[in-house]
């Protein structure tokens, strides 16, 4: 079956006798830094836009007179829109190219980002955020597929880690900037500022990203796409990685949607600017994501996932304290564990998929952002019902799911090795 018929991308423009990896870029090679920085900026813009309202939820609740669970839909709608459209967008990237889809997605998303501050009601705000999430769906899966095609296999996890690090920087800077701007001029001006920053990132991304050299257009036929998706969903390892990404994001989405509400009341009673600055802990995620390759080198993929889950659990438990320094320490551990786990799982998807990489990555991203929507919504409901302890309880259940799935994968790998030894 040809690559085009499977929706897969192939290496072109190279002698068939030369390994495809020999023609791909690697650290220190020409174009690697430019490529990495361009995708880093794309990650910054994506997360800054996607979560632009998260740190502002208490202010949005106050203006529209709604509860946390209602205001949280400004986050859940964006991540839900992304989750629903990431697979169709990945199919478009197989046909029209990764760079073209990423550029178009950013263009639409930043345009909507400039309209969001003008929303006259909560319903309109939620609708605009859903459309913005749908537009951003062209970025995550296309970016990882682009890297899988253009970067040497040995450098892939590091390259994807840098893209994820861009996500963390975007998430951090968006929340910090909106926090301080909103304290002086309100949430609408704050969201508008993020829109302008995203425009600058989008322009720089398009100017810097090298044209792909190892991409061949695939098919847009629905049957071809369905066959590729079925093949990925029938792969036990890919399904486990999808579930792990969703569960990690459930923790993260719940914690960071609710934390602003917790810190605005006693015993903390922090102003909006200080609450926005809390998101500086995202810098920890930048480090943990970019060093995930070394963690896998030391512990193996499953060992790295255990370490990420354990770190996240420790952070959740520590965040229950009534002391602000301990709460901050808990957020640091949650952030480090989440970004490490996400980088390990998403890079494993790109390595595991042998065809239709954009669809494989899209399914991961879909599960990941479904987890974000679920975490935002369920975390807010749990907070309303049981306070911060309720949100932490949701997070602990999600981490338990990560550990359980990883244990199952470890057991399956051992059984497979025994079967191979017996057959030999």
pLDDT < 50 stretches: 1-21
Strand percent estimate: under 5%
Give the helix level as a range of percent: over 70%
Average per-residue pLDDT, rounded, comes to 85
- Round the Cα radius of gyration to an integer and report it: 21 Å
Question: Structural class per helix/strand content?
Answer: mainly alpha
Secondary structure tally: strands? 0
Encode the helix/strand succession as letters: HHHHHHHHHHHHHHHHH
Count of individual helical segments: 17
Describe the largest sheet.
none
Overall geometric form: globular
**How far is the N terminus from the C terminus?**
31 Å
Describe what this molecule looks like in 3D.
The structure is a single chain. The chain is mainly α. 79% of the residues lie in helices and 0% in strands. The chain contains 17 helices and no strands. It is globular, with a radius of gyration of 21 Å. The model is unreliable at 1-21 (pLDDT under 50).
Task: Summarize the helices and strands and which ones pair or pack.
Layout: H1 3-6, H2 32-50, H3 57-64, H4 68-71, H5 73-96, H6 98-115, H7 122-136, H8 140-150, H9 156-185, H10 187-208, H11 222-233, H12 236-264, H13 272-277, H14 282-290, H15 292-318, H16 324-352, H17 357-423
Helix pairs in contact: 2-6, 2-9, 2-10, 5-6, 5-7, 5-17, 6-7, 6-8, 6-10, 8-9, 8-17, 9-10, 9-14, 9-16, 12-16, 12-17, 14-16, 15-16, 15-17
């Amino acid at each position: 079956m040809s690559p085009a018929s499977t929706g897969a991308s192939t290496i072109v423009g190279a002698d068939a006798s030369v390994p495809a990896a020999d023609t791909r870029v690697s650290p220190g090679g020409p174009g690697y830094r430019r490529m990495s920085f361009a995708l880093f900026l794309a990650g910054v813009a994506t997360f800054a836009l996607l979560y632009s309202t998260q740190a502002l939820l208490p202010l949005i609740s106050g203006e529209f007179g709604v509860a946390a669970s209602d205001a949280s839909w400004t986050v859940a709608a964006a991540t839900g829109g992304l989750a629903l459209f990431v697979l169709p967008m990945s199919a478009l990237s197989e046909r029209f190219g990764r760079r073209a889809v990423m550029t178009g997605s950013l263009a639409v998303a930043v345009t909507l980002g400039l309209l969001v501050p003008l929303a006259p009601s909560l319903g309109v705000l939620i609708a605009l955020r859903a459309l913005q999430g749908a537009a951003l769906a062209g970025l995550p899966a296309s970016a990882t597929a682009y890297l899988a095609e253009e970067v040497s296999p040995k450098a892939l996890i590091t390259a994807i880690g840098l893209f994820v690090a861009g996500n963390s920087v975007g998430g951090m800077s968006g929340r910090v900037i909106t926090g301080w701007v909103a304290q002086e001029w309100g949430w609408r001006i704050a969201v508008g500022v993020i829109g302008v920053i995203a425009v600058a990132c989008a322009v720089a991304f398009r100017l810097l990203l090298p044209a792909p050299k190892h991409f061949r257009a695939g098919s847009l036929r629905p049957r071809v796409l369905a066959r590729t998706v079925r093949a990925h969903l029938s792969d036990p390892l890919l399904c486990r990685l999808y579930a792990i990404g969703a569960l990690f994001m459930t923790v993260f989405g719940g914690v960071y949607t609710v934390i602003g509400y917790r810190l605005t009341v006693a015993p903390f009673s922090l102003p909006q600017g200080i609450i926005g600055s809390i998101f500086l802990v995202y810098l920890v995620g930048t480090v943990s994501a970019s060093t995930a390759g070394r963690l896998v080198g030391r512990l193996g993929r499953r060992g790295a996932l255990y370490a990420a889950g354990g770190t996240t659990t420790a952070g959740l438990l520590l965040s229950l304290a009534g002391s602000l320094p301990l709460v901050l320490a808990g957020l640091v551990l949650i952030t480090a564990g989440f970004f490490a786990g996400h980088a390990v799982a998403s890079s494993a998807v790109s390595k595991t998929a042998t065809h239709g990489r954009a669809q494989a990555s899209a399914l991961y991203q879909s599960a990941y952002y479904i987890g974000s929507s679920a975490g935002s919504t369920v975390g807010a409901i749990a907070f309303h019902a049981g306070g911060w302890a309720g949100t932490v309880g949701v997070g602990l259940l999600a981490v338990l799911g990560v550990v359980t799935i990883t244990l199952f994968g470890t057991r399956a790998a051992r059984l497979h090795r025994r079967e191979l030894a017996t057959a030999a």
